[in-house]
Here is the input.
Amino acid sequence: MGLILNRPSKLSLLELINQLVMDLKEDVAVSLGQSTSPATVLLDGGPVAKEQAFVVHSPERSYQQSLGISDQMVLSTDRQVLQDIAQGDGPRDFVIAQGYAGWGPGQLEAEMSDDAWVALSFQGPLTMQSLFKLPPKRRLEHTARCAGLDLNLVAGRIGYA
Here is the structure.
């Protein structure tokens, strides 16, 4: 399972919270509706389970359906995290994605061995703060730069030389 964290959804975070959460504080609704913070952009996390919200957040809060990913981040699917965000009482830093990306048996391993993916750890200039603070459109470029990659030199398709 993977989450795409740089593709904004057509649905806004405010619309999602209005659909899923019964108790939305008015000042939070106004803040979500007017904010330009990267956290207020709902992301299209992938084509699988589009009805499910995935919240990647800072670790000061944990929920019943939370998975610690690292000392810097937690992944939660518990509806309570959305309720807490709607009340202005959620995690300090968060991004929310709808849906996820999935692979068939052995598919991801094969893609990794074909160098279709670059695996990075969150250290040095690539931190969770860069995920939480950068606008979605800047995340891919920032991550590539941290890996020493120039995306201008990467071809989008296979060719013959």
Observations:
- The chain is about 30% helix and 15% strand.
- The CA atoms of residues 110 and 116 lie 9 Å apart.
